[in-house]
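Dear H.,

Thanks for agreeing to be a second pair of eyes. The structure we're designing against is below in token form, covering all 344 positions.
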């Protein structure tokens, strides 16, 4: 039973590009009479999701209630970053009724849940639930790893290589920690894709979980908020590949921040991003781009070769800087090649 004196927190996890920010925007627009606060964690030094969410701020979730941590994984920097950020949200003049935490797409959720047992916050806050988003189309096709066949071939060729890929471990840990799984981009997957993705999730889950389809982040907030899971007291039911490890690092992944001049033709840049996904095994590209002759920022969000782009808001007083964040597995990063492709 939920302790009504504690602020409930919903942890929203999921793989790269699964739609976590889109879901939070929907919750911010439909707060069910609650005053919300949001803590968003980016992987890499340049935040994009926090900027998107700040543009959606309103009286139910003002800008001061949106905190971004972009210099490291919150499950790795609990004392330095996460605890102070949560304390700052709890100390707001108007206390939030509910806090949403968007983890990095590369984060393992269990170390974060353990942080809620820290003395500074454990009497004031509870994990209402963990929501895992999974891209239905990608999961159905086995694309939560950039090239699953290549990893399988490598494992088959080397008898000593029996560990799973870092990407699959991230995916499995996120599912294992969840109270509800949302299969995002259900419209792209179709009924056959949804059924295939559901089968993958059910095979990975350590217990029976609600698995619901999701399109454009739209779901009744009552379904995923107010679960009263007290997940911080239920860690044993949420197994992790890293149980027993002293800590968790993200040495398996790297980010490259690319600054570009103004772009005259967005289609050329999009083609370059798709080329990167094919040739450099890039996982994720996101950022804002200045387009010549256009007063609006072009928001780019790519997962593999699938690139979404839209003009999101005027530059206004902000400098017209084109900045893209590129994320790849550590052994796949060729920064010079990435810069050459995007610079061209």
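And this is the sequence the design step returned. I haven't edited it by hand at all.
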């Amino acid at each position: 039973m939920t302790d009504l004196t504690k602020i409930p927190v919903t942890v929203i996890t999921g793989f790269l590009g699964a739609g976590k920010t889109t879901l939070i925007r929907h919750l911010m627009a439909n707060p069910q009479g609650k005053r919300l606060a949001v803590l968003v964690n980016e992987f890499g030094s340049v935040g994009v999701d926090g900027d998107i969410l700040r543009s959606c701020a309103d009286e139910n979730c003002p800008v001061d209630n949106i905190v971004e941590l972009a210099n490291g994984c919150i499950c790795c920097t609990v004392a330095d970053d996460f605890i102070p950020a949560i304390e700052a949200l709890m100390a707001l003049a108007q206390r939030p009724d509910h806090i949403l935490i968007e983890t990095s797409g590369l984060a393992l959720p269990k170390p974060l849940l353990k942080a809620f047992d820290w003395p500074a916050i454990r009497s004031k806050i509870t994990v209402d639930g963990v929501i895992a988003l999974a891209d239905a189309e990608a999961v159905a096709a086995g694309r939560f790893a950039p090239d699953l066949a290549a990893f399988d071939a490598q494992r088959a060729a080397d008898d000593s290589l029996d560990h799973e890929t870092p990407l699959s471990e991230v995916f499995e840990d996120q599912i294992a920690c969840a109270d509800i799984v949302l299969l995002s981009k259900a419209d792209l997957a179709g009924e056959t894709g949804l059924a295939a993705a559901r089968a993958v999730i059910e095979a990975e889950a350590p217990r029976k979980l609600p698995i619901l389809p999701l399109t454009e982040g739209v779901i009744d907030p009552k379904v995923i908020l107010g679960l009263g899971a007290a997940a911080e007291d239920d860690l044993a039911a949420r197994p992790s590949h890293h149980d027993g490890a002293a800590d968790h690092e993200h040495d398996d992944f790297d980010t490259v921040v690319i600054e570009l001049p103004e772009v005259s033709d967005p289609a050329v840049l999009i083609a370059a991003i798709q080329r990167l996904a094919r040739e450099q095994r890039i996982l994720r590209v996101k950022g804002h781009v200045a387009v010549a002759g256009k007063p609006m920022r072009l928001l780019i969000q790519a997962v593999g070769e699938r690139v979404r782009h839209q003009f999101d808001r005027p530059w206004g007083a902000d400098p017209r800087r084109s900045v893209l964040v590129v994320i790849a597995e550590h052994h796949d990063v060729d920064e010079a090649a990435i810069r050459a492709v995007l610079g061209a």
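Two observations from my side: Residues 44-48, 145-155, 157-165, 246-250 have pLDDT under 50 and may be disordered. DSSP finds eleven helices and twelve strands in the chain.

Warmly,
E.
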